[in-house]
Amino acid sequence: MKRTERHHLKEDDMAQGVHWLVAFFEKYKREIYIVAGAVAFAAVVFAGLLVVRSHARGVRSKAVGQVTALAAEVAQKPEKLADLEKLSAKGQTARLANVELARYWAEKGDAAKAGSYLAKLPAGPKDLLFYQAEDLKAQIALGQKDFDAAIAIYKKVVDEKPKVYPADAALFHLAESRELKGETAAALELYKKLQADYAQSYFGYEAALKVGKLEARK
What is the CA radius of gyration of the chain? Predict the structure, then answer.
C-alpha cells in the first residue's frame, strides 16, 4: 500500500472517531452534564471537608498544648490548678485536663481526689489517652495495695491488645502487680514471656532482670 493511501486511511479513521464522539456527546449530553456536575460538586465538598478537618486539627492541637503547658506549671505554681480545672469542665480539653489533674493529685498522694477526676472520663474512645488513664488507675490501686484492682486493669489491657498502647508495657505491669501481690510463680511466667517475646525492648530487659532476681530466691 502506498504511503499516500495509508495517510488517507488514517485521516478517515480519525474523522470517523471524531464523528462518533460528537454523536455520542449529542446523544448523552444531559447525562454527561449531570455526571460532570456531580463530580465537580463532590470535589468541592471533599475540599471543604479537608479545610474543616485541618482547622479542627489546628484547634485541637492548640488546646492540647494549652493543657500540657498548664500541667507542667502546676507543679511549681499550684495557683494554676484553677485554670486547669476550667479546661477540665468541657470541650476538647476536658479528657486530657482531667487526666493531668488526676496525675497531679496522685503524685501528691491524694488517691481519692485523683480518683474523682478519673471517674469523670468517658468509657471511650479507646485511644492512647484512655489507656494512659487506665494505667494511672492501676498505679493508684497499687499505691493503696489493692493488687486485685490493678491486676484486673492490666489484664484487660493485655487481653484487648490495643495498637495505641505498648503490649510489653502492659504485660510488664501485669507481672509486676502479680509479684507485689505475692503471686511469684505467675509473675515469673509473665516475666519469662516478656524476656522471650520482647528481648530487644526496655521492658524485655527489665523482665530479664526480674527473672534473675526471682529465680535466685528459690
Answer: 31
The rounded distance, in Å, linking the Cα atoms of 78 and 130 is 25
Residues of the chain with CATH 1.25.40.10: 122-218
Q: What is residue 34's three-state secondary structure? A: helix
The pLDDT tens digits of the residues spanning 105-123 come to 999 999 999 999 999 999 8
- What is the distance between the alpha carbons of residues 13 and 10, in angstroms, rounded to a whole number? 5
CA 177 vs CA 86, 109, 171, 195, 208: distances in Å: 35, 19, 10, 17, 16
Residues in the chain: 218
Q: pTM (2 decimals)?
A: 0.70
Our measurement of the distance from residue 28's CA atom to the centroid of its chain's CA atoms, rounded to an integer in Å, reads 49
CA dist 124 and 155 (Å) reads 18
Task: Tell which residue, 112, 90, 86, 114, has the closest CA to residue 100.
Answer: 114
Q: What is d(CA 34, CA 124) in angstroms, rounded to the nearest whole number?
A: 43
Per-residue pLDDT of 141-163, as tens digits, reads 999 999 999 999 999 999 999 99
Kindly state the cell numbers that stand for 95. Answer: 479528657
Looking at domain 122-218, its CATH superfamily turns out to be Tetratricopeptide repeat domain (1.25.40.10)
